[in-house]
């Protein structure tokens, strides 16, 4: 798959180099330095020159590069590059030029373990840390014990977790984080609405626990006799799981069973395009009574439960390019005109559910000889709402089973947010 692996600094100097096959020479690094690092116009992470392909990822002030002359799977190459970045951060905190120079011996040792003839091998951090360590030298007996554990992890089903994990307080945190993508026409009809979601988990559990939790997935609820609940259920268009999840159980009864890795990991990623609960409704009235004036009336309403609050609500309302000044009045928060960006930025630090507020503004325009038609870009709305999901997805239960039958504390938190993807035309 990979013929050569390099790490460059931002000047193009080679910090780490490893050739795995004879089809490339070390001078291939000069090609990357000239064609990519020295060329500010290059933006693509994949560059193909002749029969040689360069896959690179920039992290802080270093370039991580994989070179191949075969028709490699690009997604697999980038997955390995990002996995290398994660392993490096786990070992020495931050991947930058100084860290690479200080830990180059360790990096070469890691490369010997995670790549064999250019093919990725075991990249699980917990397994690597058992036999690649910069700490004190272990005794012969400890090395034997660790070697037996490595054999289990290399051949067993739980290579992502050690068996000797212990915590004084056993806790599991589940965060359901959703990003709402909306494009609404000026008439108020929804042109596009979907949700990109991920379920992040932090497992601080002793031993090798078996975790199980269920979602209000549509296929689960339709098996029930209560059809009214099924109509309000969530339908997921597609979902991806961490390798620890037993996919057979999910296909049969929509329950998610797994032995979690130790610490934080992404358990699931999903997408939904049906029955989206839009957290905000925006009514716009923008008129140009004269060639030198534009009047705005923007009405914002929170469509979620009054017990909840939205934080950091920011509206970016476009203005014509020849705007000279804007007079804004708001009922909630603060609004100001930013000439450099040609927008009115309306910031509301906190907004309660079911609350309504209005912005009125008058923009004064400069007279120009050749007036171009105003394209009217859409209004962008950013926000974050805790304990609310736009898709309606909920965690119905979370159970932890372990041989010692210890008591565990479970926490579930929901958050819906938008960063420039919630747009309304006017």
Short summary of the structure?
This protein has 426 residues and is an alpha+beta fold. 20% of the residues lie in helices and 42% in strands. The protein is built from nine helices and 24 strands.
Give a verbal description of the structure.
The chain is α+β, with helices and mostly antiparallel strands and 426 residues long. The chain is built from nine helices and 24 strands. The protein has helices spanning 28-37, 74-92, 97-102, 104-114, 125-131, 140-155, 218-221, 227-231, 247-253; strands at residues 4-9, 14-19, 46-49, 52-59, 62-68, 115-116, 119-120, 171-184, 190-204, 210-215, 238-241, 255-258, 263-272, 280-290, 293-302, 309-318, 323-330, 334-338, 343-352, 356-365, 379-386, 395-401, 409-418, 422-424. Strands 8, 9, 11, 13, 16, 18, 19, 21, 23 and 24 form a ten-stranded mixed β-sheet that branches. The chain is globular.
Low-confidence stretches: 135-146, 220-229
What's the multimeric state? single chain
Largest sheet: 10 strands, mixed
The proportion of residues in beta strands is: 35-45%
**Helix- and strand-based class?**
alpha+beta
Q: Kindly state the number of beta strands.
A: 24
The percent of residues in helical segments reads 10-25%
- How much is the average pLDDT? 83
Radius of gyration: 27 Å
Describe the global form. globular
- Continuous helix count: 9
Main location: membrane
GO biological process, one term: endocytosis
Keywords: Cell membrane, Coated pit, Endocytosis, Membrane, Protein transport, Transport
Domain MHD: 169-425
